Amino acid sequence: MNIQWYPGHMTKARRQMQEDIKLIDLLIELVDARAPLSSRNPDIDELGKGKARLILLNKSDLADERANEQWAAWFLAQGFQVVKLNCRSGAGLKQINGAVQAACREKIERDRKRGILNRPIRAMVVGIPNVGKSTFINAFAGKACTKTGNKPGVTKGNQWIRLNKSLELLDTPGILWPKFEDQEAGKKLAYIGSINDEILDKEELALELLSFLQERYPDGVRERYRLETEASQKAPKMLASLLEQIAKARGCLQKGGGYDLAKAANLLFDDLRSGKLGRITFERPDEQRV
User: Nearest 5°: phi and psi at 41?
Assistant: First the structure.
């Protein structure tokens, strides 16, 4: 399966980011904790050169906790500040202000030496589709946020939001999408819902997903659908049979008989993305060629 999705408006968004990046001190980058590298836009490191960096491992409640710890250590070793986050429950939000201060320590010290005290840090939130950017902004800002108005050099429509006395956030339209060459990365993004489902062959993708789950997390599928399936069942026929078993278990039947495998595939992805198959991570630091 060749997965590629690059809406035309992303080119405009990238140009906009190049302009806005001049106005900020800090890039706050949300990644999906289930696929932390695949869910990073490779352009951001280049665009964000010289800026303080904070990585938020969002949806960490859906990811393998051992892998969360490994990724947090890996990003720290790359020079990023890191916070494990669950925007929906609010877990991790209280750690962000401290991480922002740590990431911008050099900038704060420079200001202090120049006699500039208590100037708010200006930050921009970036992240790929469906990684939770808007949910994070709303959860972090809460009801107390106040718009500080357009600042010079900011194109119309971009607003600064004062989160507290020490932090202002540049709230911009959706920013960037990686035009990836790596189909493995594309596959992982398709699994977690960061690519438009309408362009995907969900049945074929479901077989790929089942192959991964049978190798790494076999208990989740077996327990969710109450199947009697061995973890070693990875051959294509076995995987097709497994999808049929899921269809049978969930009552996915076609009119006139037979199993509705498309419906079963959709249910499988819904269960994966909502955490009903357990906490799953699709990539780990020790597997990366970096």
Answer: -80, 120
Residue 4 vs residues 133, 201, 216, 264: alpha-carbon distances, Å: 22, 12, 26, 24
Tokens of 214: 């049978």
> Cβ(34)–Cβ(280) under 8 Å?
yes
Ramachandran category for residue 258: left, alpha or beta (phi over 0 → left; psi -120 to 50 → alpha): left
Mean pLDDT computed over every residue of the chain: 84
Separate counts of helices (H) and strands (E) for the chain: 11, 7
Note the Cα 4 to chain centre separation in Å.
17
Q: Residue count of the chain, please give it.
A: 290
- Say what the pLDDT of residue 150 is: 40
User: Helix 202-216 and helix 261-273: axis angle, to 10°?
Assistant: 50
Taking the model in full, what pTM does it have?
A: 0.86
The 3-class SS string of 23-87 reads: HCCEEEEEEECCCCCCCCCCHHHHHCCCCEEEEEEECHHHCCHHHHHHHHHHHHHCCCEEEECEC
Model pLDDT for residues 72-115, shown as the tens digit of each residue: 999 999 999 999 999 889 999 999 999 999 999 999 899 889 99
